[in-house]
């Protein structure tokens, strides 16, 4: 069993630390935010993530998981130091590496024995070399270090499961023996482990996120065409997904992708490409289509409500996706703002993200339930596909609304069933069912059967 220090107690750091502790390692999570550490020491988690609280509690009680703000304490016996700090977008879309640099320097200055540095933060290609240089400058001359890149692929909302049952682990380093030592930490998970060079490992992370974002933008473009031509994108995606070369995942059309990863990573990859003289035409289109998905939703609401000024709109879901309270780059928040910009009165409900959303939204009534949000509404928009919204009492919802209009931004309902319940239903690429009557394409006369 190994002694591991994790720098950064955010989503990635905390989940990774708790999972390594659960596998029997001695883990110390370090964060420079003393309030966060004080909370964690009392069992208070800074994020909502299914299963994490129990995992942290169990391993902290077992003495395998500790929290500190002190580098010397965290590194005292560590064999591995994972860097898992934020790399937010800079002003030009580039990844801001200041937290990584600060963490690297602090580890370098505090380490007193040989250490393997494992970089988990999503960092521009070449950062492994930057980190190596920082260590070379600041480390004591009698200790050795090795830098290994180990990009993280966990998703918010299923982070613990993703961490314990990964599709693969990617490791990249200049020293194969160091990468192999990191691989031993993952062996109990019995998943494919790919060992490659530093830059390739860093690129695998960006290419994976950019590809997933591309799939979503692709299906959103297909959905827009379906809206015009009367096909149903859900069925189209189902029909495509059975092809083994395509697969079924990440083909759900809707309001588009958001969160703390896809937007910043696609921007950063595009920025890297442009800086190095490659025209990132596809990546730019992927971002543009994603913005269009939100604007198209506003357009649909405008069309079905014959204008948005003073229309009351209930937005259901504010987090960037279900099972998280994260509202960073949330399509739902942007939609609410776009609607307000056109004079709409926005009411909203989210099962867990209302508090975080409240800090970003002005003049939005944050309600205690979907029914309360729908009271007096001219339309309800499903902006995030929480399971709760799939099980609403739709008759009750319709009764409290001023007009029975549902704009289903995540395609959670069946169009025919919604029409049968008396709703005007507008989905994303749901064929003729989805198009409001005034924008329905002209129906051709069927020739009489002889
Ligand atoms: C994403 C990746 O899936 C993870 O593998 C990666 O580790 C993580 O970024 C990261 O780089 O840290 P995450 O941001 O948690 O994970 O969210 P996803 O589940 O990938 O969803 C991203 C966005 O795409 C959400 O807004 C979601 O609603 C949207 N989405 C997803 C769709 O619109 N359609 C789909 O079919 C799937």
Q: Which characteristics define this entry?
A:
single chain; alpha/beta; Rossmann fold; 2 domains; 6-stranded parallel beta sheet; 44% helix; 13% strand; elongated; binds uridine-5'-diphosphate-glucuronic acid
Topology, please?
Elements: E1 3-7, H1 11-22, E2 26-30, H2 34-41, H3 52-61, E3 65-68, H4 71-75, E4 80-83, H5 98-110, E5 115-119, H6 127-138, E6 145-149, H7 159-164, E7 169-173, H8 176-186, E8 193-196, H9 198-229, H10 233-241, H11 262-275, H12 281-304, E9 312-316, H13 331-341, E10 345-349, H14 354-358, E11 365-366, H15 370-374, E12 379-382, H16 387-390, H17 394-400, E13 405-408, H18 415-420, E14 424-426, H19 431-434
Parallel strand pairs: 1-2, 1-4, 2-3, 4-5, 5-6, 7-8, 9-10, 9-12, 10-11, 12-13, 13-14
Antiparallel strand pairs: 6-7
Structure in words:
It is a single chain. With 450 residues, the chain is α/β, with parallel strands linked by helices. It has two domains: 194 residues, NAD(P)-binding Rossmann-like Domain (Rossmann fold); 254 residues, NAD(P)-binding Rossmann-like Domain (Rossmann fold), CATH 3.40.50. It is 44% helix and 13% strand. The chain has 19 helices and 14 strands. An eight-stranded mixed β-sheet has the order 3-2-1-4-5-6-7-8, with helices on both faces. Strands 11-10-9-12-13-14 form a six-stranded parallel β-sheet. Helix 5 links the parallel strand 4 and strand 5. Helix 1 packs across helix 3 and helix 12 crosses helix 13. About 3% of the residues have low confidence. The structure holds uridine-5'-diphosphate-glucuronic acid. Uridine-5'-diphosphate-glucuronic acid (UGA) binds next to helix 9 and helix 11.
């Amino acid at each position: 069993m190994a002694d591991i220090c994790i720098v950064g107690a955010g989503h990635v750091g905390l989940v990774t630390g708790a999972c390594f502790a659960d596998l029997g390692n001695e883990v110390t999570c370090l964060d420079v935010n003393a309030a966060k550490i004080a909370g964690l020491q009392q069992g208070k988690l800074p994020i909502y993530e299914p299963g994490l609280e129990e995992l942290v509690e169990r391993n902290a009680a077992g003495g395998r998981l500790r929290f500190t703000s002190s580098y010397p304490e965290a590194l005292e016996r560590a064999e591995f130091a994972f860097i898992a700090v934020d790399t937010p977008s800079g002003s030009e879309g580039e990844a801001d590496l200041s937290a990584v640099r600060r963490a690297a320097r602090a580890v370098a200055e505090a380490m007193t024995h040989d250490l393997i540095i494992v970089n988990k933060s999503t960092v521009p290609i070449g950062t492994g070399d930057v980190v190596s240089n920082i260590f070379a400058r600041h480390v004591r001359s009698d200790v050795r270090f090795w830098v290994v890149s180990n990009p993280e692929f966990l998703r918010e909302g299923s982070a613990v499961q993703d961490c314990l049952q990964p599709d693969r682990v990617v490791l990249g380093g200049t020293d194969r023996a160091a990468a192999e030592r990191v691989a031993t930490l993952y062996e109990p998970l019995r998943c494919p482990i790919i060992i490659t060079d530093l830059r390739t490992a860093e690129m695998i992370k960006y290419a994976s996120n950019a590809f997933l974002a591309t799939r979503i933008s692709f299906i959103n473009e297909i959905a827009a065409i379906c809206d015009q031509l009367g096909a149903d994108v859900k069925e189209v995606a189902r029909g495509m997904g059975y092809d083994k070369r395509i697969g079924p995942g990440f083909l759900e059309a809707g309001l588009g992708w958001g969160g703390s990863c896809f937007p910043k990573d696609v921007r950063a990859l595009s920025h890297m490409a442009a800086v190095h003289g490659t025209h990132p035409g596809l990546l730019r289109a992927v971002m543009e289509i994603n913005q269009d998905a939100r604007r198209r939703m506003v357009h649909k609401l405008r069309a079905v409500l014959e204008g948005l000024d003073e229309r009351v709109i209930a937005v259901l879901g504010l987090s960037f996706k279900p099972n998280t309270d994260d509202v960073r780059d949330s399509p739902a928040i942007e939609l609410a703002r776009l609607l307000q910009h056109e004079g709409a009165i926005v009411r909203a409900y989210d099962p867990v993200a209302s508090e975080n959303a409240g800090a970003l939204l002005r003049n939005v009534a944050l309600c205690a339930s979907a029914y309360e949000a729908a009271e007096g509404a001219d339309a309800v928009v499903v902006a995030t596909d929480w399971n709760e919204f799939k099980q609403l009492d739709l008759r009750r919802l319709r009764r409290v609304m001023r007009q029975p209009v549902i704009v289903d931004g995540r395609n959670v309902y069946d169009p025919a069933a919604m029409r049968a319940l008396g709703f005007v239903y507008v989905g994303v690429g749901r064929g003729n069912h989805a198009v409001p009557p005034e924008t329905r394409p002209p129906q051709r006369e069927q020739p009489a059967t002889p």
